[in-house]
Amino acid sequence: MSRFVRLSIWLGILGALLALGLYLGDRVKADPGYVLFAYGGYTIEMSLWAFVICFLAITVALWVLFGLGGALGRLPLNLLRAWGRMRHRKADSRLVEGALWLRRDEPARALSVLKKDASSESLPALHWLLASEAARRLEQLDESERYLESAERLMASIPKAIEHDSMPTEFKPLLKSLKKQWREDWALGLETVGDDDPLSRLASLNSLAKAQAESVALEVVQARLALASGLEAEARHHIDRANQLDPSNPLVLLLRVESETGRTAALEDLRHRLLQDLA
Hints:
The protein is mainly alpha-helical and 279 residues long. Helices cover 72% and strands 4% of the residues. It has helices at 3-30, 48-103, 107-114, 124-137, 141-154, 171-180, 184-187, 198-204, 206-211, 216-228, 232-245, 250-261, 265-278; strands spanning 35-39, 42-46. Strands 1-2 form a two-stranded antiparallel sheet.
């Protein structure tokens, strides 16, 4: 809105008030009216306009008086609420500080902050969840569990744990599952699950190998199955292919050693530990 428009509006308002004042002044001068209050032996006489002015003045005075009284009456409650808000802000800042230390991988400092009572915070459940995570990172498992239980007690509803699919324990169901949805970690199980012999397993993997040509795990499995079946040339092909895909993969390095020295108990034990680490 431009300055000229605002000025015009204010001039219009002032003009209207001036006109109203002139009109009321003329009415008061022409006919002031008459108001009489009588009670018992007492009477009060005044003009109508004096009565209107007194009525407005008394109304404003009562409004100010009762408004001030209400404010004074609410003063203790307002002070209590202000104190509560101050405590909440201080407690929430402690929660943020703990989360920040946890994000900076300083669980000890985070836990030292989050050990304090969370009753004044806006999100006490989150406080104890962060404390539980900090204790877990410090391997204080009992403390972590205790904090987690405190958080769960404060939560209206606890989300159910996500159930992860378990790998099929037979070869054909596993093969079918991998064709439907590929999982690199499950592919390593194609060598061991079920009772199928290595040669039949290797033959069944041809169609899967075409669809997953970039899978290191599948190349490793095919190489080991070929070695177990005595197919040296095919085993060498899969070993070379796995080496091209990921030469630094521990399973690929182990496969190369195995192809040169043969399978031994020590190599199988090392492979088993590698698979556990990858799981």
